[in-house]
Amino acid sequence: MLTKSQVIVFVPVQDAERAGHFYADTLGLHEAPTGPDGTRHFEVGGGNAIGLRVLPDARPSENTALSFEVADIAAEIRELEGRGARFLDYDSDDLRTVGHIATLGNEKAAWLTDSEGNYLCLHQGG
After folding, report:
1. Is there a contact between 115 and 15 (Cβ–Cβ < 8 Å)?
2. Angle at the Cα of 122 (from 120 to 125), degrees rounded to 5?
3. Phi, psi for residue 112 in degrees, rounded to 5
4. 49 pLDDT band (50/70/90 cuts)?
5. CB under 8 Å to 8, separation ≥6 — which residues?
6. Mean pLDDT across the stretch 18-38?
7. Considering the chain, what percentage of its residues have pLDDT values greater than 70?
């Protein structure tokens, strides 16, 4: 049954070594064994994983590729910035951030890009 399946989300990367350092060192994720095809895997909650799929002509998505639910978004931002992450700020009619955090109804969100330009999000429910 798919509702009980573990999920691996594949993220396109051009440079697996560079991306691997970002996911391990900057995000602090634990690296799992590399797949038989060379895909580097990183563990996330609930037995799920992120797979860094090397695609030499990969272009990052213009939308959020991954979103991590966190309990305290401000604390997570401070921790990740301490590891070198750079968060994005927005100031438009549609989206405005304060301290890197956008308030969207009862939810808060913050965005950053990985080493390959993929958009990642932290979100905290209300």
Report:
1. yes
2. 145
3. -145, 170
4. very high
5. 41, 48, 49, 50, 51
6. 95
7. 99
Neighbours of 95 (CB within 10 A): 13
Burial bucket for residue 74 (CB in 10 Å: 0-12, 13-18, 19+): middle
Give the phi and the psi of residue 86 in degrees, each rounded to 5.
-120, 120
- The phi, psi pair for 80, rounded to 5°, reads -70, -35
Residues 110 and 89 sit within 8 Å (Cβ to Cβ): no
Residue 126 has a pLDDT of: 67
Model pLDDT, residue 60: 87
Among candidates 101, 12, 87, 18, which has minimal Cα distance to 50? Answer: 12
**107-126: per-residue pLDDT in tens?**
999 999 999 999 999 999 86
- Tokens at residue 77, please? 């931002």
